[in-house]
Design a protein that fits this description.
Length: 292
């Protein structure tokens, strides 16, 4: 059995003091990843002496509009994201992804911060957040630093967070006019992992119906979620009136294999990821045509 001392903070400053003073501290937010790992004595869990419960820090539970950004506190739960008008009006793709997470109980406890720092290849908020160009703010007693989320991720279940740092904010730039978004997911968590794949798509479509500034980020397709620049480039400049969805499907499959190499699951994933991009693009094309 893992043994540790339990610390709890009601203020960010106090949590930062603990992180500064003690080493080998595990931060506890909703606990839906961490407590499972502790219970299983997961080899992914580094040895730790202290468990620091931050779940009761009210200052880390905000969702606010600041100039051209929406700022989200790391303790915002998936359920809160889903019900928040600011998110609904600006980033429906985040709500679509949050809605697919676990069960009601998991969505009520699990937080956006925990989903990010746990950095699972299958974390459902990572693809839409990367596609939305989210930034993370990390705070320690030495100060604050901000990183694009895509750079913050360092591998499967790995990030660039330092032991004395707390994730204190997620900052997402507003999209502006004529942007369209979609999130697609297949498979259930309890099914074989082969059946789990997702994809976030963000794109701008100009008055002539041409795709611009496209962002394609699959989940569970690569060791950790990342942008697919070749697929994005292939979509940009195409018209909604004659884009060849089959061709884009082939490009996204090839790009996935260029990252992962051929594996036993590749034949399934190649066709599944092609299906996801075709569905996402098809849905957006229909939406634009209906709005015309
Ligand atoms: C049955 C079940 C089903 C699930 N289904 C899904 C699913 O469908 N999709 C999905 O994406 N996830 C799923 N999850 C995983 C989980 O619910 C999410 O990843 C959740 O968002 C994690 O948030 P948390 O607050 O519970 O994190 P915790 O478990 O508290 O923490 C996770 C990690 O993040 C660190 N951490 C948390 N907050 C901070 C912070 N502010 N600063 C620094 N480090 C921090 C912790 O130290 C820990 O390492 C499921 C989990 C379970 C048990």
């Amino acid at each position: 059995m893992i043994s540790y001392e339990f610390l709890t903070s009601k203020k960010t400053e106090e949590a930062l003091d603990y992180l500064d003073k003690f080493s080998k501290v595990q931060i506890l937010a909703g606990g839906t990843d961490l407590l499972v790992n502790i219970h299983k004595e997961s080899p992914r869990l580094p040895p730790f002496d202290y468990l620091l419960d931050i779940s009761k820090i009210p200052e880390l539970k905000f969702i606010t509009l600041v100039k051209n950004f929406i700022e989200i506190g790391p303790l915002v739960t998936h359920s809160r994201l889903i019900s928040e008008p600011l998110i609904k009006d600006n980033f429906p793709v985040l709500i679509e992804a949050a809605n697919t997470i676990g069960s009601t109980q998991i969505r009520n406890r699990g937080t956006i911060g925990g989903n990010i720092v746990n950095a699972s290849p299958a974390a459902d908020l990572l693809p839409p957040l990367i596609a939305l160009r989210a930034e993370v703010e990390l705070t320690s007693r030495k100060g604050k630093r901000a990183l694009p989320l895509e750079e913050f991720l360092a591998g499967p279940y790995k990030t660039k967070i330092q032991p004395n740092e707390l994730l204190t904010k997620i900052r997402i730039p507003l999209l502006g006019d004529n942007y369209y978004t979609d999130f697609q997911k297949i498979g259930r968590r309890k099914a074989l992992s082969i059946a789990r794949l997702s994809l976030a798509l963000v794109t701008k479509i100009d008055k002539e119906g041409i795709f611009n500034d496209t962002r394609v980020v699959p989940g569970s397709a690569t060791p950790y979620p990342q942008s697919f620049p070749k697929t994005e480039k292939a979509i940009n400049g195409k018209s909604i009136f004659n884009i060849d969805l089959e061709e884009i499907g082939e490009i996204v499959s090839k790009e996935m294999v260029s990252v992962t190499g051929e594996r036993w699951s590749t034949p399934y994933k190649k066709s599944a990821i092609a299906t996801l991009i075709k569905r996402a693009l098809g849905k957006i094309v229909e939406e634009v045509k209906t709005n015309e």
